[in-house]
Design brief:
By secondary structure, this protein is mainly alpha-helical. The protein has one domain. The protein is 57% helix and 9% strand. It is built from five helices and two strands. It has a two-stranded parallel ribbon.
């Protein structure tokens, strides 16, 4: 998804302003069904506020809650062999 959004942002600029929204866990009817721990889960209202703040900043990527998404960004920067092994252990 990230690569697709990056490509669209380049190809459609300046006619279309493409943004990438990367949320953590948000309390919804769907997440209420999960039987696993959801770190840093936030309310829909908090998620909406984060998106609005991100849109006002005019940056490409909007990610929240930061305490969760920064960890995921660090994991994504690792080589696949290491990141997938780490994520399997956490799951």
């Amino acid at each position: 998804m990230n690569n697709l959004a990056e490509t669209l942002a380049v190809e459609l600029a300046p006619r279309v302003d493409v943004r990438l929204v990367c949320p953590g866990f948000v309390q919804t009817r769907l997440t209420a069904r999960n039987d696993f721990a959801m770190p840093a889960i936030i309310t829909p209202e908090q998620a909406a506020e984060a998106v609005l703040r991100g849109m006002q900043r005019r940056g490409f990527e909007i990610h929240f809650p930061r305490r969760f998404t920064w960890v995921m960004k660090l994991v994504r920067a690792l080589p696949y062999a290491l990141s997938l092994r780490l994520l399997r252990r956490l799951g």
